Amino acid sequence: MHKRTFIKSGILGIFAFLLPKKARSLEYYPMPSDKKWAVLYCTGCGSARDAAIWISEGMDGIANVFDVRENPDLSQYDHIVIGGAIRGGKTSQELQDYVAGNKETLKRKIRGYFAVC
Ligand SMILES: Cc1cc2nc3c(=O)[nH]c(=O)nc-3n(C[C@H](O)[C@H](O)[C@H](O)COP(=O)(O)O)c2cc1C
């Protein structure tokens, strides 16, 4: 590979990582709906993420799906499902901290829980 081609490819690669948040592959794209549903999950190895997406798919894909590590702002959602992987008999500390820190936002909006174990 020529040096110039190598440099061009490298620059293009760097810009690909700077794509807007919406274009990132892990972003979940819900189906359009006037109902504002969100599924929030915590995962260690990915099974709980799969489960969260299956839950949304079971709802015709209308629920947006969030990893708790993104610290999502769920204030714009009216209905929320929360769950995740169980390790050592409980969910992750991140999820526990998120729920404790967002009680006001989550209060009266939680429609279901799930656990992957
Ligand atoms: C270190 C460790 C601890 C676990 N502890 C429990 C547990 O206490 N109870 C349970 O039912 N499952 C337990 N599991 C099983 C996980 O819940 C299961 O593997 C789950 O699919 C992990 O989800 P994840 O892929 O989203 O991390 C444990 C798994 C690991 C690796």
Which helices and strands appear, and what pairs or packs with what?
Blueprint: H1 3-17, E1 37-42, H2 47-58, E2 64-67, E3 79-85, H3 93-101, H4 103-106, E4 110-116
Parallel strand pairs: 1-2, 1-3, 3-4
This protein binds flavin mononucleotide (FMN).
Flavin mononucleotide binds at residues 43-48, 85-89, 116-117.
- Tell me the radius of gyration: 18 Å
The hetero compounds bound to this protein are:
flavin mononucleotide
What is the straight-line distance between the termini?
49 Å
CATH superfamily: Flavodoxin domain
Strand content: 15-25%
Look at the structure and give the CATH class.
Alpha Beta
Question: What would you note in describing this structure?
Answer:
By secondary structure, the chain is an alpha/beta fold. The protein has one domain: 3-Layer(aba) Sandwich (Rossmann fold), CATH 3.40.50.360. Helix content is 34%, strand content 21%. It contains four helices and four strands, in the order H-E-H-E-E-H-H-E. A four-stranded parallel beta sheet has the order 2-1-3-4, with helices on one face. Strand 1, helix 2 and strand 2 form a beta-alpha-beta unit. The longest helix has 15 residues, at 3-17. It is elongated, with a radius of gyration of 18 Å. The termini are far apart. 23% of the residues are buried. The structure holds flavin mononucleotide. Flavin mononucleotide binds at residues 43-48, 85-89, 116-117.
